[in-house]
Specification:
With about 200 residues, this protein is an alpha/beta fold. The protein contains eight helices and five strands, in the order E-H-E-H-H-E-H-H-E-H-H-E-H. The chain has one domain: P-loop containing nucleotide triphosphate hydrolases (Rossmann fold). Helix content is about 55%, strand content about 15%. Helix 1 packs across helix 8 and helix 3 runs parallel beside helix 5. Bound molecules: P1-(5'-adenosyl)P5-(5'-thymidyl)pentaphosphate (T5A).
Length: about 200
């Protein structure tokens, strides 16, 4: 069975940790699993990621949004859709919801345009289920303390608060796809909640 799962949340919420645990679990029970990330996942999209996160020149908000969209279109066409067509499971560390939360909620770009851009970039592809790992931005910041901040992480706590609020609004609007998980407890406990939700959605 092929399915597509995305992990979302503010910076440092623990997505990557959960994605890796889920990959180990699904692989151990026989699924073929592809793990990927946004921005990224293909050579071109990784090059765009490098520019987006580490550009020495300032990037305008519209440019930033369109670069995320360009990376996404390539990611969908070159990696995600072919993997799903081969019957594989795709786990993505972020997907289209990130643009709604960060460039829409965080930067204040018009939400209807961000959504239309996403629909174009993904050619209508949506995850079967999205895990929103919800945590206080101060905790996310502490979890990232030892790492050097990239361009977007450097925007501070108020920005992360707006991003978090946008994610929670999306989860309220689409409860059948977006499962909000409290990301404060231990990684083991969060992993258990994720497995439970997958079972409830008939994906396990
Ligand atoms: N972006 C992305 C946009 O603005 N628009 C878009 O459209 C897209 C796609 C890159 C940036 O790009 C932005 C968002 C981002 O700012 P990223 O690489 O996913 O995206 O960056 P981060 O979200 O910052 O990813 P991180 O890897 O830093 O954080 P994670 O994946 O949320 O957290 P993780 O799992 O690496 O954990 C961080 C630390 O916390 C510990 C881990 O061991 C690790 O040390 N940890 C926990 N500690 C205690 N309790 C738990 N439950 C823990 N879970 C993990």
């Amino acid at each position: 069975m092929s399915f597509f799962i995305s992990f979302e949340g503010i910076d440092g919420c623990g997505k990557t940790t959960q994605l890796q645990r889920l990959r180990e679990h699904l692989t151990s029970i026989g699924y073929t699993v592809i793990t990927t990330r946004e921005p990224g996942g293909t050579a071109l999209a990784e090059a765009i990621r490098n520019y987006l996160l580490h550009s020495p020149q300032p990037l305008g908000s519209r440019t930033e949004l369109l670069l995320f969209g360009a990376a996404r279109a390539q990611h969908v066409d070159e990696l995600i859709r072919p993997a799903l067509e081969r019957g594989e499971v795709v786990l993505s560390d972020r997907f289209a919801d990130s643009s709604v939360a960060y460039q829409g909620g965080g930067l204040g770009l018009p939400l209807d345009f961000v959504r239309r851009m996403n629909a174009f970039a993904t050619d209508g592809l949506q995850p079967h289920i999205t895990f929103l790992l919800d945590v206080d931005p101060a905790i996310g910041q502490q979890r990232r303390l030892r790492e050097k901040e990239d361009r977007i992480e450097g925007r501070g706590l108020e920005f992360q608060e707006r991003v978090r609020a946008a994610y929670l609004e999306m989860a309220q609007a689409e409860p059948e796809r977006i499962v909000t998980v409290d990301a404060t407890p231990s990684p083991e406990e969060i992993h258990r909640h994720i497995l439970q939700a997958l079972w409830q959605h008939g994906l396990l």
